[in-house]
Amino acid sequence: MTEKNYNPEQKQRKSMKKQEKFQKAVDTEAFKSEKSEIVEDKDKKIEEKVEASGEVEKKQEKKIKEKPKKTKSVVNGFNVPISTKQSAAICRFIKRKKIQQAIKELEEVVKIKKSIPMKGEIPHRKGKMMSGRFPEKAAKHFIILLKSLASNSIQDGLEDPIIVEAVANIGARPFGRAGIRRKRTHIKIVAENKTKEKTRLGVVKLEEKNKNEK
What we know:
Distance between the termini: 131 Å
Helix content: 55-70%
Radius of gyration: 42 Å
Structural class: alpha+beta
Strand order of the largest sheet: 1-5-4
CATH architecture of the domain at 72-198: Alpha-Beta Complex
Order of helices and strands: HEHHEEHEEH
Largest sheet: 3 strands, antiparallel
CATH class of the domain at 72-198: Alpha Beta
Number of helices: 5
Shape: rod-shaped
């Protein structure tokens, strides 16, 4: 390069441009490495979240599977249009019996082949009972309730259910024509497993014995 063409400012500019290019290249490489690290961190976090959600789902499935089994099934009938006296007699009749057995016997009552023991000035019937009647209407309503109780016991997982409790109470008494009060009854029927019923009866008997001894 001749002295005429020599320009120190131009040379400095060229060197500055080279340095800028080199710095840009370095910066891009650093940015790429940082970006890759950020992406890897994000992927790891996503994987951890997926694993955690999978564990939560497994725990929830276990909780659903490990639901506590119900020990009894209940069915309620509110303001059933039947006599409370007849309902109480049917409740005594079906108590301590299996659900299907109670349904069969009540179907016989509807067909007037079997009578239900009842107290009072009522005609005598054949069999071990003193007196009884054939409450067909009440028996039909009880059959409906017992069928729903049977389906409830299957859903609740009861193996060999027995009717433990059967209660009939007076319900609302609406007025009909000529000021006549209509008959309405609340009914509650409870079924439990046969083994639990036996143990419960044993506990009751022991308590009675202890009272008698005292």
